[in-house]
Amino acid sequence: xxxxxxxxxxxxxxxxxxxxxxxxxxxxxxxxxxxxxxxxxxxxxxxxxxxxxxxxxxxxxxxxxxxxxxxxxxxxxxxxxxxxxxxxxxxxxxxxxxxxxxxxxxxxxxxxxxxxxxxxxxxxxxxxxxxxxxxxxxxxxxxxxxxxxxxxxxxxxxxxx
Length: 161
Fold this sequence. Notes:
alpha+beta; PH-domain like; 2 domains; four-stranded mixed sheet; about 30% strand; elongated
């Protein structure tokens, strides 16, 4: 069975994808700030470089919080015209850019998670920053039921404000 998504990703989905990626990196940076906080507490106990670690911890936490709570961009100028073709156990992803094409080929077994939102699916094979976006309104061949059966057990619903 072949499933194909083809067309230009909407501005709404581009903005939500940007926010999802920012939150992902914000969470990792906040986790780093928590580790630095533990190091700061240990440094205060042994009285070694407490102030320097405290300043670093506050700076890293501020960057992480800034990414996590950053507002969405008004517009993302570059069009995202994509084709996602799922044929058998292989996913072919093509992004059409002015003057060039970017292509990826992944196996369905490489997909760790699939996030289902109201308007799209994110096929996550490494982390959310490298996810393949399949907007629901761009489905050209196949059905959503067939798509969800391919990724059974990996699909998680996600809300992105």
